[in-house]
């Protein structure tokens, strides 16, 4: 599965978990940050730097979504492997 397809699957997973995703240009940063998850007004939001490469976007999504209990959620085997192996990302 290519990175763009993986990113699409991760976005669908996030939406299914009720997590909003925002692609934003992160201005004023002193060092590059691909993004991350935060809670804003009680809602979980994953911010992704619009300037980041697809591979960095995937890493950001995996890191954020790993905090959820996904044991009862169906994931394609390749995506499940990626989530399980994310310590290597």
What's the short version?
The protein has 89 residues and is of the alpha+beta class.
Structure description:
- By secondary structure, the chain is an alpha+beta fold.
- It has a single domain, classed as 2-Layer Sandwich (Zincin-like), CATH 3.30.2010.
- It contains three helices and three strands.
- Strands 1-3-2 form a three-stranded mixed β-sheet.
- Strand 2 and strand 3 (43-49) form a beta hairpin.
- Helix 1 runs parallel beside helix 2.
- The mean pLDDT is 89.
Main attributes?
89 residues, alpha+beta, Zincin-like, 3-stranded mixed sheet, 3 helices
Tell me the number of strands: 3
Supply the CATH class: Alpha Beta
Let me know the largest β-sheet. Answer: 3 strands, mixed
**Number of structurally distinct domains:** 1
* Cα separation of the termini: 16 Å
Sum up the overall morphology in one term: globular
* Arithmetic mean pLDDT: 89
**Poorly predicted runs:** none
Helix content: 25-40%
**What is the ordering of alpha helices and beta strands?**
HEEEHH
Structural class of the secondary elements? alpha+beta
Topology:
Elements (H helix, E strand, L loop, with lengths): L2 H14 L3 E5 L10 E6 L2 E7 L4 H12 L11 H8 L5
Parallel strand pairs: 1-3
Antiparallel strand pairs: 2-3
């Amino acid at each position: 599965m290519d990175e763009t397809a993986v990113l699409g699957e991760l976005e669908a997973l996030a939406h299914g978990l009720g997590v909003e995703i925002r692609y934003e240009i992160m201005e004023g940063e002193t060092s590059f940050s691909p993004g991350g998850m935060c809670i804003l007004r009680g809602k979980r939001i994953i911010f992704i730097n619009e300037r980041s490469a697809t591979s960095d976007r995937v890493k950001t999504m995996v890191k954020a979504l790993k905090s959820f209990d996904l044991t009862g959620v169906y994931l394609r085997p390749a995506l499940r492997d990626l989530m399980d192996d994310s310590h290597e990302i």
